[in-house]
Specification:
The chain is α+β, with helices and mostly antiparallel strands. The protein is 36% helix and 18% strand. It folds into two domains: 200 residues, Sandwich (Jelly Rolls); 130 residues, no CATH class. The protein contains ten helices and 17 strands. Helix 2 runs antiparallel to helix 7, helix 7 crosses helix 9 and helix 9 packs antiparallel against helix 10.
C-alpha cells in the first residue's frame, strides 16, 4: 500500500492475528449466550449481557485480546496511551443479514468512536458464504476473511464500508471500537458491574447462568420466528424435557427458565439443568471440546420423556442454523448423540466455570486499580514514573491471567485426552 493511500484511508489487515483456539472459545461463548442483535438477522453477545445473565466469568477470555488489539490500534495510528475501549461485542451475521455503505461514527450518539477492530472468528467459504466486507475507497477493497484475521481502521468517513448479504452460514466476529473520550470507557462501567457480581459467587459451586427475558432470544425470520436457544439445541439433535409439571400451554417459553433435561429421542441425559442457558452452555462446551474428548464412564439410561414441541418456525430455524456450509453436527456431535460424552462434558464445563470464577475474583482488584489510575490522569500527560506504575499493573494483571489460564486449560482438557496422549506445546 502506498504511503499516500495509507494516509487517505488509514487501515490495516492482520492475517491470522488471533490464535484459533481463542477464536473457538469465543465462538463457544457466543453460541451459548447470544441474544438478538441491533439489526435484522444479527445476533450479539455484549459484556453487559454476560454480566446480567450471571455469566460474568465469561468476560475473562476477552481481557487479554482487548489489550492486544488496543496496543495494535495505538501503534498503527500513533496514539499510544490515548485510547479507551468504547465497546466490545461478539456479533454473528446470519443468512440474509447485510448492511449498506456507512462509517462507524455516522450517528450523533456514535461520534465518540475513533477506531474499529473487527476480528474474524470463522472463515469465508468454509463456515459462511457472502458477508464480504467492502470498503468504498482505498486498499484493500474487500475482505474475504479466514479465522483469526483482524481488520483495524478509522471509524470516520475515510473508511466508509458495507457488508454483503450472507447467503449461507453464520459469519462470526469479535468487534471493538476505541475512543479518546474517557467518559465512554467501557471498562469503567464493566468493572462496576463485575464488582457487584463477583461478591455473589458461591463456592465451590460453579456459577450457573440465568436467562434474560425470553423476548431477547426470539429471532424473527421472514414473517415468522423461533427461540435461538431452542434452535441451537435442535440443529444439534437435542430435545428439551422440562421437569416442571405446571401447565405452560399458553406460554411454552416459560418452561425454558425452569429445570429441564436434554434427550436425543432415544435417551434422556441423567443430568438436570437449572434452565435452558445452563443446558445450552454444556452442549456448546462439548461441541467446542469434542475433538479432544474420549468416551468413558457410565450413565443411567432412561426411557424418553415427553419433550417440548417446536418453539417457533422449525424450517426457519434449520435454514438459519442448520444448513449451507455451517457444520453444526460433526463426528462427535451427531444426531445419534454421544450421550455419555455429553454427560462427562457437563462436569468439565463446571470445572471451566469454577476456574474462570477464580481468575475473575483474583484479577478484578488489579484491573480496578489500573482503571482508577487511568481515570485520574490522561495517560499521554503522565510522568514516566506514573506510566511505569500503569504498565506494571497491566503486566501483573495479564501475567496473572495467563498463569491461571494455563491452570484452567490443563484442569479440564486433561480429562478428555486419550490415555498416554500428550498435549502439544503448540496448542498452549
Amino acid at each position: 500500500m502506498q504511503a499516500e493511500e495509507r494516509e487517505e484511508h488509514p487501515r490495516l489487515l492482520l492475517p491470522r492475528f488471533l490464535p484459533q483456539n481463542l477464536c473457538k472459545e469465543l465462538e463457544f461463548i457466543h453460541k451459548s449466550c447470544c441474544a438478538v442483535g441491533y439489526r435484522p438477522g444479527v445476533l450479539s453477545t455484549t459484556m453487559s449481557h454476560l454480566v446480567a445473565t450471571d455469566c460474568a466469568h465469561l468476560v475473562v477470555p476477552f481481557v487479554t485480546v482487548r489489550e492486544m488489539l488496543r496496543e495494535k490500534v495505538e501503534d498503527r495510528f500513533g496514539c499510544e496511551f490515548e485510547l479507551f475501549v468504547e465497546f466490545t461485542g461478539l456479533v454473528s451475521w446470519c443468512k440474509g443479514a447485510s448492511i449498506g455503505w456507512h462509517s462507524d461514527d455516522n450517528r450523533p450518539y456514535l461520534k465518540q468512536r475513533d477506531f474499529a477492530a473487527v476480528c474474524y472468528l470463522n472463515s469465508y467459504g468454509e463456515d459462511f458464504r457472502g458477508g464480504i466486507f467492502r470498503f468504498k475507497d482505498g486498499y484493500p477493497t474487500s475482505i474475504a476473511p479466514q479465522v483469526g484475521d483482524v481488520l483495524i481502521y478509522t471509524a470516520d468517513c475515510r473508511n466508509i464500508h458495507s457488508v454483503d448479504e450472507v447467503i449461507e452460514g453464520e459469519r462470526l466476529t469479535l468487534t471493538l471500537w476505541f475512543t479518546r473520550d474517557k467518559s465512554h470507557d467501557e471498562d469503567a462501567k464493566l468493572i462496576s458491574l463485575l464488582s457487584s457480581r463477583v461478591n455473589q459467587i458461591i463456592k465451590p459451586r460453579p456459577t450457573l447462568p440465568f436467562p434474560a427475558p425470553n423476548a431477547m432470544y426470539w429471532f424473527t425470520s421472514a414473517g415468522s420466528g423461533f427461540d435461538i436457544r431452542w434452535a441451537r439445541l435442535h440443529v444439534l439433535g437435542w430435545k428439551i424435557h422440562p421437569q416442571s409439571t405446571e401447565d405452560f400451554s399458553e406460554d411454552p417459553l416459560r418452561k425454558l427458565i425452569g429445570p429441564l433435561r436434554l434427550g436425543n429421542g432415544k435417551e434422556v441425559l441423567d443430568v438436570e439443568f437449572s434452565n435452558i442457558l445452563h443446558g445450552l452452555q454444556a452442549v456448546q462446551f462439548y461441541c467446542w471440546k469434542s475433538s479432544s474428548m474420549v468416551e468413558r464412564g457410565l450413565m443411567t439410561r432412561e426411557t424418553s420423556e415427553a419433550h417440548l414441541a417446536s418453539l417457533g418456525d422449525l424450517a426457519a430455524a434449520e435454514s438459519i442454523f442448520g444448513s449451507g456450509l455451517v457444520v453444526t453436527v460433526d463426528d462427535s456431535c451427531q444426531k445419534d448423540l454421544d450421550v455419555a460424552g455429553q454427560r462427562l462434558a457437563v462436569s468439565a464445563w463446571e470445572d471451566y466455570v469454577r476456574a474462570l470464577d477464580e481468575i475473575l475474583e483474583r484479577s478484578l482488584p488489579a484491573w480496578q486499580t489500573n482503571q482508577e489510575r487511568m481515570h485520574c490522569h490522561c495517560l499521554h500527560q503522565m510522568s514516566s514514573r506514573d506510566l511505569c506504575k500503569v504498565g506494571n499493573t497491566y503486566a501483573c494483571l495479564y501475567m496473572h491471567l495467563w498463569t491461571l489460564n494455563i491452570f484452567y486449560v490443563s484442569c479440564f482438557e486433561s480429562q478428555f485426552l486419550p490415555n498416554g496422549e500428550e498435549r502439544s506445546t503448540a496448542e498452549m
